[in-house]
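Put briefly, the fold is written as integer tokens. The lines below illustrate.
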Amino acid sequence: MIDERGRAAVLTEISLILAAIFWGLNFVVTKYAADFLPPLIVVALRFATGGLLLLGILKLLEPEGKKLARRDVLPMLGLGCFGIGAAQTAFTFGVSMTSAASAGLVFATAPVWGILLGLVLGRERPTLRGVLGIGLSILGVALVFYGGSSGTGGDSLAGNLLALLAAAGIGAYAVFSLPLLDRYSPLAVATYSVLSGTLAILLASLPFFASVRWEGVGFGLWTAIVYSGIFATAFAFAGWQRGISRIGANRVLVYQYLITLTAVSAGVVLLGESFGINKLLGGGIILVGVYLARRQ
């Protein structure tokens, strides 16, 4: 018989695996949706759907949870606008311009940029292993960029740069969310930051809504938006935060690798993207670098 602690551990592992797979598949889903709708509309619909669902999950699971204090309103707004709004907008534009495989490899460096920011702010103490990991990750990104500079295989240097900007934004989000996580649950921080980011994205995307011919939006596109909002936002954010709160950030590293593996595999299998030697070598170096950096 599995006791209550064992069941909780199994549920945590399942939620992390599903969150990683949903996020990995979202690279392909986002690229598909951005072929038919302006990228800002895609990200706005995604987070409007996911943010409202997260709010419902928060009210259901934490009905007596701590309310957002007045002093934390501006920090939460900043976290959402930049860590969610700006980062996810860059992600959506980046994936729309480059291959899902390259975006997935570059996006894997998110923890490294968080560690680098932590070093700059004095939150992390540099170690030889950590510095080596950061250096290897940068080298791996350079190789992926070099392979995409020719514009072959669906790659784009500009798209890869936007994916890198998105990864840096997600890394910064993790660092700047730490003070808030001292006062609120992981689910509350995820919900409030996503809602804040959604507000910024909706305001930026309003001019584009009038240009969309909504009567021409088909079932496949709506399915992609619903998937992205429900599974790759509400469920994935809730499941990921639950996993981090239970087993710690460092132990979820293997699941971050699963995000990259899923994104790359889906790009190759579903979109027919090429996966040349630059991506193979650069991706391997990136993953080794991320492993070393997170083990410092």
In short: The chain is about 80% helix and 0% strand. Residues 4-294 form one domain.
